[in-house]
Structures are given as C-alpha cells and as structure tokens.
Amino acid sequence: MKSNEKALILGANVDIVDFGQALQRIKQLIKAGTPSHIITLNAEILYQAQDNEDLLNVINAADLVTPDGIGIVWAGKKLGYPFLERVTGIDLLYLICEEAAQESWKIYMLGAAPNVAETAAKQLTQKYPGLKICGCHDGYFASDETDQIIEDIKKSQPDILFVALGAPKQEFWIKEHKDALSVPVLIGVGGSFDVVAGIKERAPEWVIKANLEWLYRLVKEPSRFKRQLALPRFTVEVLKQKAKTKD
User: Fold this and answer.
1) Which of 4, 20, 108, 170 could form a disulfide with 165 if both were Cys (CB 3.0 to 4.6 A apart)?
2) How confident is the model at residue 2 (pLDDT cuts 50, 70, 90)?
3) Is residue 1 part of a domain?
C-alpha cells in the first residue's frame, strides 16, 4: 500500500495511512517547510460536513486527513478501501512528540482552558526527555487577540502547532490562519490537552482495542448523547454510497 492512497467517503478524501505512514508524511511536510494542515477525521465531523459545504471544502483542502474514528475505518472498509487502523489525534500527538524529542522539532500548544496547555506541556516533556515545547496559549481568547497570538507563535518558530479548539472550530481556524502563521505542520487535536494534562481520563486499553472508546466517552459524558446520534445517520449515508457504487 502506498502512503498517498486515498478513500472517498461521503465526498471527503481520507488518506489510507497507518501511524507509521502518517508520521513519515509529517516528516516530509516539516522538511518541505510549507504550512500544511493535518486533520484527524471522525464520523461525527464528516456527517456534519454533509450539510456544511465549507467544512467539507476544508477537509478536502487539508494536506493529510487521517482516519481518526472507528466509524471512518468501518466506512472505508465497507466501501472497499484497505484501511489498517485508526490514526487518532491523541495517539498521533504522542507519536509526534516522541519523534520531536529525537528530531529536535519545536512544538507550540494552542487551546483548551487556561493553564491546561502548560500542564500538558510539562507532562509531555517529562514523558519525552529532550522535547522542545516553545510556547503555550489557552483557547479562551477573543477574536481581537488573534493577531497577537499569531505573532507570538511566529516568534517562537515552531515546527508543529497543536490546536485544541475543538472540531470543527479548530479546522476552520487553522485553514484561515495557516499561511500567516508560517508553521510547517498544523494539526487539530480536539480535547487531547485535557487527557494529556490528566483532567480527563482516557478509556482503558482494552476498550480502545475493542473499538469501544466512543461508548466509554458517552458513558462518562452523557451530554455527548445528542452528538452521538450522528453515528447511525452516518452509517445510513455510507450504506447509500455503497449501494450507488453497485449501480
């Protein structure tokens, strides 16, 4: 399997990559130096994009779109694409940080509540000795503060910018500002800072391996129920696409 293969799922181009291939692509993007947008896509966001053309356009304009949720992997396989595994935002974050410590890449962390990014940064630098985190800023900023934040990021000269503003807000923010930021790799990581900082607990390993992380999160956060209703609707749309390909 080549690392540039893509799957077309409900109008979105998703890269057929595993973790190793995603990391190799990130290395190439950092070496190239041109601002590049990475999206870790789940079924909920892709379903939103069915009624949001701007969001679908942002997804298709990204330089790398990984199959974050099991829904995307299921859809890809249902449509005949050879997906091997989920490439989740938080696991990709950890993998990037491990590699960054070896490659001397600099990382800037933007998003989450006040002090969360700093706490997450401390956890990451302890976990990966030699990791260079060159700056942090929370996600609770007004629109008129954006220019100042962009200047701070530019002065810090990171190789990678993690943006934890929640999806799809973070995707639109990256798309709008990536050229001004001049950071080689910009990636939305949702609520990953909260997990890294120890504020939220991730599902046990056996739950993750059983592809039931979505259910664990729903039990822990019942308020997610309304959002999770997108999953059966997503399933129906994928089955419709599969039926059309048979015609």
Assistant:
1) 170
2) very low
3) no
